UniProtKB/TrEMBL annotation:
<dbReference type="Pfam" id="PF11381">
    <property type="entry name" value="DUF3185"/>
</dbReference>
<keyword id="KW-1133">Transmembrane helix</keyword>
<feature type="transmembrane region" description="Helical">
    <location>
        <begin position="45"/>
        <end position="63"/>
    </location>
</feature>
<keyword id="KW-0812">Transmembrane</keyword>
<keyword id="KW-0472">Membrane</keyword>
<protein>
    <recommendedName>
        <fullName>DUF3185 family protein</fullName>
    </recommendedName>
</protein>
<dbReference type="InterPro" id="IPR021521">
    <property type="entry name" value="DUF3185"/>
</dbReference>
Length: 65
């Protein structure tokens, strides 16, 4: 049961980090910079990657017997 709870917490935290990364990427300055350079800044990418890792680890924890 403890592993399932930790998995759920990781999924929720990962979704929050991914949403935070999305919000960061939608600011005016970052939108203009992304249009000019064609890439996202490192903070936004870090939030996306951390969110994805948390969600994957959480799903593994939830699906484990």
């Amino acid at each position: 049961m403890k592993g399932k709870l930790l998995g759920l917490v990781l999924v929720v935290a990962g979704a929050g980090l991914a949403f935070w990364g999305y919000q960061e990427s939608q600011t005016f300055n970052k939108t203009i910079a992304a249009e000019l350079t064609g890439e996202l800044d490192s903070r936004t990418m870090t939030l996306y990657i951390a969110g994805a890792v948390c969600m994957v680890l959480g799903l593994v924890g939830l699906l484990r017997k």
